[in-house]
């Protein structure tokens, strides 16, 4: 069949011009990047970017677009980019240039350091043509200044009455955390008064237009806990897309969980599980697997919807995993949990290259020094994404995750048909660290470790015995017959519907078939309308 290109692109825009909901984000996996640091324009000096200097390094929306294959080939189905709006312009601040995009001045304009409106639209169109989503980072809580008595006329909100008056934050005092100013005396961040009805209305109109104009699929909201909670439902309703907030925290689940739900946001970044994975898996570290199981159980009862949380091990604010834990197996095992439990997995650019910078600004390295190599970690992430992208077309996302067992050396979890076993022992081989995993499968059932394609057989009473005599590598087991159609471990990418030998005809397999037929049906429907 031949379709004229113009009609195809008309169809593509028809198909993609829809705001993405929480439900549509649930099955995605996200690559987070800082626009300035992801890719250089051709001809630029690749050796001129020193994160310690806090200067612009030259990345743009156009250079992201030129390098999308690198992200898509790793199996990601969305990207999250650093803020796109105009930032502070003036003499260099005590903390350098606003290369990261978080130092907002005027939200009614784009940041021309990163390109034009057309460049941004071209990036987003390209993503949509790959069936990938765009999540844009937005800063609502504050603007940036270089003194506590700034000239408000340069900001979007031009009247001092639209800001809270200056006070330093008293941590632990919620009112103070919401109304006082983030930052410090060198770079204060004037706190926008988000209880002011004019501010609320103007923010609502702004986000509605921004999402529409650029066809944005989701928002990552900076410093969400520094704005009063009841601001968010109407703001996100105006945006009409998935909202994931940054509510910074540690192991404690309660203070974070209260921000998810109809009273606040669709989702938050999963700081409790991040903190627990550091406790449980970092080497050296306390190796406290109980922290992981405790946060897991509390999350299950306290979060409104753990399937929407943003699971991460690195971001622009915390030290890279490889800085706190050099053994790559510690990263791989922790990543397996982020992919195979509830939640939307997120990688921070450079994690796939084992970058090792400490906290801000050293964790904002330029990616180009890696030459975009398909490193072992890149390949590991690609395998996780390929497997999860297959699972999300079945009923896997709707299945509850539960812990099968914990040991001092690791934890085994099950979601749907998939059993994942993660250990914290690291790369060196160890004897006497076996984890005996009680599974619901019948003895002698055939399983495949999707990370290595090795075949496993379930032992007596349904136990799976995982041993680490060759080192502490993670294990992901799936019944062999259920991998049909996955494209993994020798299985083709398509269902063999005529295969009458197939024993398993689970709801998962059927719904995956339905999902793959859906776009075709939509396409035919569109053509029917078009030809009428
Ligand atoms: C700024 O806010 C003050 C106090 O609410 C108000 O009296 C004044 O009219 C406002 N100015 C402008 C230009 O809106
Ligand atoms: C909490 O912070 C608010 C705002 O700065 C302040 O008015 C209030 O006195 C503080 N409460 C306590 C108990 O310190
Ligand atoms: C391990 O974590 C649990 C749960 O957070 C905590 O109660 C316990 O004190 C921790 N143990 C160690 C040795 O840090
Ligand atoms: C962690 O970061 C600090 C500061 O950048 C650096 O000195 C140190 O070498 C890093 N550690 C590792 C293991 O890379
Ligand atoms: C990237 O390529 C440059 C130029 O060929 C080379 O000097 C450098 O070692 C490479 N870096 C990595 C991490 O492969
Ligand atoms: C594990 O046990 C085997 C067999 O007894 C032995 O050869 C090997 O050296 C042991 N490995 C370690 C790391 O202790």
Automatic annotation (TrEMBL):
InterPro entries: A-amylase-like (IPR013777), A_amylase_C_dom (IPR015340), GH (IPR017853), GH13_cat_dom (IPR006047), Glyco_hydro_b (IPR013780). Substrate binds at residues 54, 103, 220, 250, 317, 364. Its EC number is 3.2.1.1. Disulfide bonds join 49-57, 167-180, 453-489. Its cofactor is Ca(2+). Pfam families: A_amylase_dom_C, Alpha-amylase. The record marks 317 as: Transition state stabilizer. This is alpha-amylase. It comes from Macrolepiota fuliginosa MF-IS2.
């Amino acid at each position: 069949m031949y379709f004229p290109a113009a009609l195809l692109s008309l169809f593509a825009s028809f198909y993609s011009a829809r705001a993405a909901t929480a439900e549509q984000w649930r099955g995605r996996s996200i690559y987070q990047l800082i626009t300035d640091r992801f890719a250089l324009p051709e001809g630029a000096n690749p050796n001129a970017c020193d994160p310690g200097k806090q200067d612009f390094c030259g990345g743009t929306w156009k250079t992201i677009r030129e390098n999308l294959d690198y992200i898509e080939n790793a199996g990601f189905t969305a990207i999250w980019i650093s803020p796109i709006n105009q930032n502070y312009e003036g003499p260099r601040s005590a903390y350098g240039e606003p290369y990261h995009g978080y130092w907002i001045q005027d939200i009614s304009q784009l940041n021309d350091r990163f390109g034009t409106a057309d460049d941004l639209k071209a990036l987003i169109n390209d993503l949509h043509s790959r069936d990938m989503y765009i999540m844009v980072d937005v800063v609502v809580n504050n603007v940036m200044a270089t003194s506590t008595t700034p000239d408000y006329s340069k900001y979007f909100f031009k009247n001092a009455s639209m800001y809270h008056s200056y006070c330093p934050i008293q941590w632990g005092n919620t009112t103070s955390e919401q109304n006082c100013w983030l930052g410090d005396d060198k770079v204060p961040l004037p706190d926008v008064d988000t209880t002011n009805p004019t501010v609320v209305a103007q923010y609502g109109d702004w986000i509605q237009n921004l999402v529409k104009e650029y066809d944005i699929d989701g928002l990552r909201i900076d410093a969400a806990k520094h704005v009063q909670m009841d601001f968010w439902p109407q703001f996100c309703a105006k945006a009409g897309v998935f909202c994931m907030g940054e509510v910074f925290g540690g192991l404690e689940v309660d203070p974070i969980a209260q921000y998810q739900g109809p009273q606040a946001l669709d989702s938050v970044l999963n700081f409790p599980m991040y903190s627990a994975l550091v406790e449980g898996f970092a080497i050296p570290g306390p190796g406290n697997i109980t922290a992981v199981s405790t946060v897991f159980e509390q999350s299950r009862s306290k979060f409104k919807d753990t399937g929407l949380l943003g699971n991460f091990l690195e971001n622009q604010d915390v030290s890279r995993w490889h800085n706190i834990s050099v053994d790559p197996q510690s990263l791989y095992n922790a990543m397996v949990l982020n992919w195979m439990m509830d939640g939307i997995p997120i990688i921070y650019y450079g994690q796939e290259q084992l970058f090792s910078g400490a906290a801000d600004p050293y964790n904002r390295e330029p990616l180009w020094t890696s030459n975009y190599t398909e490193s072992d970690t890149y390949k590991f992430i690609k395998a996780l994404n390929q497997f999860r992208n297959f699972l999300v077309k079945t009923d896997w996302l709707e299945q509850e995750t539960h812990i099968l067992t914990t040991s001092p050396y690791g934890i085994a979890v099950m979601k749907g048909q998939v059993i994942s076993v993660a250990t914290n022992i690291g790369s060196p081989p160890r004897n006497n660290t076996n984890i005996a995993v009680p599974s619901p499968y019948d003895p002698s059932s055939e399983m495949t470790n999707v990370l290595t394609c090795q075949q496993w057989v379930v032992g007596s009473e349904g136990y799976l015995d995982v041993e680490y005599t060759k080192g502490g590598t993670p294990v992901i087991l799936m019944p062999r017959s259920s991998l049909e159609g996955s494209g993994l471990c020798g299985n083709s990418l398509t269902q063999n519907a005529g295969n009458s030998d197939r024993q398993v005809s689970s709801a998962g397999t059927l719904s995956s078939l339905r999902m793959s037929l859906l776009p075709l049906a939509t396409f035919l429907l569109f053509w029917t309308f078009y030809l009428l």
